[in-house]
Request: fold
Amino acid sequence: MRGRIIRSLLPLTLAGVLGVGAAVAATSLLRSGGGTVKTAQSAKYGPVLVSSSGRTLYRFTADRKGKSTCKGECASSWPALTVKAGSKPTAGTGVKASMLGTMKRSSGAPQVTYGGYPLYLYSGDAKAGETSGEGTDGKWFVVSSSGALVKHATSSGSGSTTSSTTTTTKKTGWG
Reply:
């Protein structure tokens, strides 16, 4: 009887351990940025800032230079791009090294900044190149290589003319 109970609980225990391990790994991947900021071509928004793993970077309009206002539950959905204490971010392709820096978060972690503004990842972007956080609450936007907020999609038509369309605003309750 005892052997049967153990055999029936073993798969559940194993699944729980693997699930926790996957969640920890996913959180670690999402929060780490490797410290390199580079640009990537977004089909919808043109050249935008991304982390070393290709994850799109965002700015929060409620932030000010050198000050992050995204904490608690907000930071769960919008994790800060951080580097290890004592490290500096690295400028990759298309990024101006003079615009990269760090600021100290309330937790003490060094958050990467561009043009003085804190940078974030979005938990809703499942893989490199996704921009599903764009326009959320009308306060979260992808960032161009100049440090500007990208609030409009670019048209990828056949001509050299580009047109703008307004981004749909999503509501999440953050901000």
Remarks:
- DSSP finds two helices and eleven strands in the chain.
- Residues 32-166 form one domain.
